[in-house]
Amino acid sequence: MYHLDQLIALVTAVEAGSFSAAGRQLGKGHSTISTSINNFELTLDVQLFDRSQKYPVLTPIGEQIYAQAKLILRQNERMMAFSASKAKFEEESLEIGLDTIMPFGYFEVELEKLAAEYPHTEIHVSRSRGDSLQHQLVSGELDLAIQLNRGAVTESVDFVDLQPVIFDCVCSPDSELADMTVVDSETLMMTRQICSRDMLENPLTGIKAKFSNEIWTAADMHDVARMVEQDLGWAYLPREITQERVAMGTLSNFITDYNPDNIPARCEVDLLTAPGKVNGPALSRFIDLLRGKSVTK
């Protein structure tokens, strides 16, 4: 039966270029590395290296064994990391609730950091309306939720104000709005507007979201963006959604006469958590990362 030390000796010798270099890298003598590889060859009953030259060279079967040895060592590293994470009581999974209006890009950097630090914790992201998110949080279906501010928050949840989402006025490059230096209110009111249904129903955003006389709606912000790209109307959309599309030329920003200085429209964001919940290390870390977006008052 072979040992991991023999696999390590083989892989290191190949990658270091010689048994002596492998010994220096592993803090062992040349003879120790040579003996380990010799014993490995005896166990497998194959010759891994051609030793007829100054430096040993892998034989064809040695090339195949080397590739399998690297795979086994990687699997062993993953197993050890997984065991270590469970020894630290890391969560099996996290349930994250996201408001239907919230752009995923708002927290993707924080999510990438979490994934790198806790690779063995599964992440499940679901979307619901803000009022539903609060109920799911209280019932234990969610570990945390991120929503656009809806005004009153139930006393059953804790919340932190995060950096706001910035909304831009956008239209298709083919729209007459895109050719206007400043779009007057009357023209905008007479041009079809595309809105997220939940944005209209949100007690706070609904007040500002509806402008035009004719409104079309979609359930998803990305669907709204697609409809605008098709020149079916104009919309207020989160910058996380518009920025790349504007750069690609599928959407255009425009300025209105009621906001000639083009001051960005902002919607406040709440991070919701269940009070008294005992958080594991992954959830605590994610909350800390998101708190980095908190608003200083």
TrEMBL record:
- Read off the PROSITE patterns from this record: HTH_LYSR
Q: Which Pfam families did the record assign?
A: HTH_1, LysR_substrate
Record protein name field: HTH lysR-type domain-containing protein
Q: Which GO terms describe its molecular function?
A: DNA-binding transcription factor activity; transcription cis-regulatory region binding
Lineage, please?
Answer: Bacteria, Pseudomonadati, Pseudomonadota, Gammaproteobacteria, Vibrionales
Can the keyword Zinc be found in this entry's annotation? no
Q: Which residues form the signal peptide?
A: none
Q: Which UniProt keywords apply?
A: DNA-binding, Transcription, Transcription regulation
- Please tell me the species this chain comes from: Photobacterium jeanii
HTH lysR-type domain boundaries? 1-59
Q: Which family does it belong to?
A: Belongs to the LysR transcriptional regulatory family.
